[in-house]
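Appendix C reproduces, verbatim, an entry submitted by the partner laboratory led by Prof. M.T., so that reviewers can inspect both the input and the predicted structure.
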Amino acid sequence: MKNRRVEEDNMGSEESGGISKRQRLDEHFSASGIENPLVPYNDVDDEEEDFERGETANGGGKVEENRGQVVAAENGEDEEEEEDLYGEDNSLEKRKSQFEPREDCPYLDTVNRQVLDFDFEKFCSVSLSNLNVYACLVCGKYYQGRGKKSHAYTHSLEAGHHVYVNLRTEKVYCLPDGYEIIDPSLDDIRHVLNPRFTRDQVKQLDKNRQWSRALDGSDYLPGMVGLNNIKETDFVNVTIQSLMRVTPLRNFFLIPENYQHCKSPLVQRYGELTRKIWHARNFKGQVSPHEFLQAVMKASKKRFRIGQQSDPVEFMAWLLNTLHANLRTSKKNNSIIYECFQGELEVVKEIPNKAITEKKENGDIFTETSRMPFLMLGLDLPPPPLFKDVMEKNIIPQVPLFNILKKFDGETVTEVVRPRVARMKYRVIRLPQYLILHMQRFKKNNFFIEKNPHFSQFSCEELGVERFYSSANA
């Protein structure tokens, strides 16, 4: 009986010891943070950023560290056995030394700048996610994450490509090792990824006009680079090229601090496109407005989209009004768009007596005078000729711009039928800093859209708009 009681006591002590040891092991592994097997991509985010957040949190890092020290003190020899069993050390010092930046990366010679193109949307080529995207500097493809189960990590093992840049932070890493690469030879890639200008450089843009050379040896002039026609998007390209000539608008969007308060993707993408067009260190002599077009499609609800031709006048009017609506503040209804392009017209409307009965009578015609702001002035071309010349060929009609501008002299009458029949007279009472003129060349008849073949002649030095400008009425 005595021997059986001793054996039962020994078995109880062993069971209690095993339970306490199992509890200590569970506490130790919960403190070290073993990954959840139910979450397949739990390490997609940067391990270094997670480590820094845990270390710099308010008391969080110290609590974890103290908890690890307590567990180590309690376990004693058990911790050494666990390290020998799993073959790894979970200490913070070893993990921190693993991600220390290095300057002697042996894979820098594999970087291929010829294949790098940062004009497209920042989406992973595998998961189509825009979170934590890296660009492979060897093949130019985009991959998500930097952890051991991420697509970038897998690509580094399968293809043997080891140098990656974070498209948001512009940091360069070596995978699968995971350390950051510090090398000044990669600064040109950062400048192409996110072109930046200082205020002094912006002031000197028009003074120092020098040609630049791309990687393929072609020369280009910053600000005059070509835009890729993705698919029937030439109406966007001509609008962008014309707006790039407006100096105040260009200077405003070259410095992101001017519109950092605006969260509109259209404004941000337009600013990025402006900086890329005027950047003097591009790898290529052309720019692709792909990201800007995606923002246009989303903001216009696919009114203007890739693969569908549209009127550039309608697109410019929509773009200027949308940029103004996003840039203006709640305190004042003003923006860089209105400062550059807004003018004011005096409109005299003569309406027949049958249309209105409560206006001041002037014979059989009622007259209304109002002021109207404008961003663009539309010019009416004369109708095309119906007859051919003696050689049985169509005559190429030409008209001076001065004759078309008579519409705004305050005396020429323009007949309108919508929304009601009226006779209109226009006079410019305030000229904008930059005047946009467009001609109604396309008109839709009962069968198809007809193009007016008239050419407009004007002088490149002087347009003569001041003849139709009445400052006395302003």
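The radius of gyration is 35 Å. Additional entries are available on request from the coordinating office.
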